[in-house]
Design a protein that fits this description.
Elements: H1 10-16, E1 20-25, H2 39-55, E2 58-59, H3 82-98, E3 103-108, H4 115-123, E4 130-133, H5 136-146, H6 160-169, H7 191-194, H8 213-234
Parallel strand pairs: 1-2, 1-3, 3-4
Amino acid sequence: MDMLITTATSRDERDRGARVAVLPVGSFEQHGDFLPLITDTIVACVIARRLSTDYQLLLLPPLTLSCSHEHSGFAGTVSLSAQTLIAVVTDIVESLRNSGIERLAIVNGHGGNYVLSNIVQQANVGRPRMVLFPGRVEWEAARTAAGLEASGGEDMHAGELEVSLLLHAYPELVGEDFRHGDWQASPRPHLLVTGMRGYSESGVIGRPSLATAEKGRTFLDSLARSFKDHLALLL
């Protein structure tokens, strides 16, 4: 788990001379009975670490608390307000600017962080300074590349995608119960009102039983390739 947080020294980063920083944003929320509360943080860190390695970016430590209000009522879930998340990201951007890094890639591992889209959109008024990754196009392309069987709509939370990524990167964190954890709940027109409790007793919406480590590896490879276009926009 130590590699979820960068161990680079100041000299390492001085030698790297990165022009772009990458910030993983996760969450601390329930993921059923077989995935840890930090699942979204792990997902964001695994992707961000791969991007940092492949593209020589300054890897920042993750934001481990974010906007998880739709998971309220499930044991262990902790949230920040949208206003607080905005303020934290704003402060990080300002600190990076003072250090000479003008561009930031936010890797979002939690779908409920809607406010990140507004932060990025506002930051790019005038010229490109920030990207939010992966977007819907990159998620879907990676799903196809990895041969995921469940659709993005049905595989919302603690399903085939997330379990596959953890089986690839940290298999010791996945409980054996994932093989019997499938829960179908589509469509979900009132999710913003009822939260997950309105659609799932277990906290799962998806088909985790379909997950494999190989799917997770191929999924990550696809995301790493697709980031190239986003980086080109910043540089």
